[in-house]
Amino acid sequence: MLRRLVFSLFLNWVIAIAPALAQTLTQSQVRHVVCAEAVWCDITSQIGGSAVTTQAIVVSPQADPHDVMTSPAMARDIAKADIVIVNGAEYDEWALRLAATSRGAGRETLDVGRLTRASPDANPHLFDDLGVVEAFAHHMTAELIGNQPRKAPELMQRASAFDGAIERLRQRVVSVKSEVTAKRIVATEPVGGALFTALGLEVICPRFALAVMHHTEPAPRDLALVEGALETGQAAALIFNPAVTSPALNGLVDTARAHGVPVVPMSEMPMPGQHWQDWYEGRLTILKQALSVR
Ligand SMILES: [Zn+2]
Fold it and tell me: In the record, what terms sit under GO molecular function (predicted)?
């Protein structure tokens, strides 16, 4: 409630200064936003409505956004953007490089990690963190109102609806947490980290998942540790990122199945057309179901 009040005061301030802001901008038309990952474009278009057009570079849940081979077509897409959105926090360095080589007049690069002051060693899957997504949504709302003050009523209505979706997720997290807190899990990759923390779950040997994310060979003792946790019933679930596979990771899935440990897929991105909040809610549901088995 306090958070909403603060945001509403903030919006009143933005609307008060918006006409002055708009005068300082040479362009006050629909903003074309190009995002490194589809999830940020989904949130932007939910907030922006008719004030934005969006295009995302990585859109498939099967893709690994940490490791993207860039192409001239991607550079051309970025060159058309008024605003480029990258996750940042070392998640998509390829996108920052693309944006840097394609600087245009008035083009802005919005780095979510910087914007929300994510610490350098933070889990880079920032879309898993409700506070980060909320801060990003508020920033976009203020920026778009500043650019198109006449659309302030529509933008405020959209921002308020999105705030409501975040609030509902917060309540759902509290409810699921009461059933699963303190359970221990193994994860093949750190996606979902902020969600696990919010639910009070403990990731066994997070170093293992970090090594996978960095495409380095996990230490043999760490592999043995997570295997042991699956074999001896210490782990209540194995969280498996389908975008990152290897013989060792597939072996962990086999070990989990052989010992009756639920395997929970957790991808880096919503399905095309799926909203971020529905994806988040779906992941809560699947985690709850898996963790209630043990
Ligand atoms: Zn990842």
Answer: metal ion binding
